[in-house]
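Notes taken during the Thursday session

The instructor put the following on the board and asked us to keep it in front of us for the whole hour. The protein is Septum formation initiator. We were told not to look anything up and to reason only from what is written here. First, the residues (180 in total):
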Amino acid sequence: MTRTAEQAKGRAGRLARLMPSGPSTAARTPFVLLVVLLLAGGLISLLLLNSALNEGSFRLSKLKRETTELTDEQQALQRDVDSYSEPDALERRARELGMVPGGSPAFLNPDGTVSGVPERATAQPSTPTALPAPEASAPVPTGQPSPPGPTSPSASPAPSDSPVTPSTAATTPAPTTTGR
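Then, after some discussion, the predicted structure tokens were revealed:
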């Protein structure tokens, strides 16, 4: 064991000779400052990154909420368009405007001849069918008479020169013809 102790003492002695005064604090200061600056820079970078991610998350949730609201609005508008585009609704509104179904059409062939005999459109009385109004009217209390006049602002009386009145307006389908 004496030999290892002498060897350790010899190594320590050699190191002591290489650094006669020991590690100086002036030599350690730049290294310590570098490590502290690196740690502080990393911490500040993490805080800035976290803030940016949170801001993006809030913006994403806001955009998702707006997308949901706009999708609901688009679906409601599409339902309205679909209800106004139904054949019964189109015919009812056309009759309210005084329009009548067309007669038999005539077709012009590519060679210039006319096939079919055109007929003038005439108003045909038809049987009324009950259709629900697009707007819901307010319920009338039981035992009281209903108010006079139209129940919705969009309902208008038929023109006086029109042979079709609102009570006789029907939802009969227009005659169909097969075309070539």
